[in-house]
């Protein structure tokens, strides 16, 4: 799962705004992606919430429809 901290993304956007010679699409992500399981456990830990069991893909699809692809794929 590629991720990026909000502060890093804002800094990247501000940098790109100042660069007149750049064009096209740019991706922002941390240099070391983690698995969804690792991300979920870390997030739960920081929120002081349990991360007991994974949510099956069909539940995400039923609940989020097309947006579930953001959670199920990269």
Indicate the topology.
Layout: H1 6-18, H2 36-46, H3 57-64, H4 68-72
Please report the number of helical segments: 4
Largest sheet: none
Distance between the termini: 6 Å
For the record, the count of structural domains works out to: 1
Mean pLDDT: 88
What is the helix/strand order? HHHH
Q: In percent terms, what proportion of residues is strand?
A: under 5%
The residue ranges in which pLDDT falls below 50 over 5 or more consecutive positions are: none
Write up this protein.
This is DUF1731 domain-containing protein. InterPro entries: NAD(P)-bd_dom_sf (IPR036291). The model has no long low-confidence stretch (mean pLDDT 88). 0% of the residues are buried. 50% of the residues lie in helices and 0% in strands. It has helices spanning 6-18, 36-46, 57-64, 68-72. The longest helix is centred in the first third of the chain and has 13 residues, at 6-18. The protein has one domain (6-19, 33-72). It is an all-alpha fold and 74 residues long.
Summary of the model, kept short:
The protein contains four helices and no strands. It has helices at residues 6-18, 36-46, 57-64, 68-72. It starts with 5 loop residues before the first helix and ends with a helix.
Feature tags:
74 residues; mainly alpha; 50% helix; extended
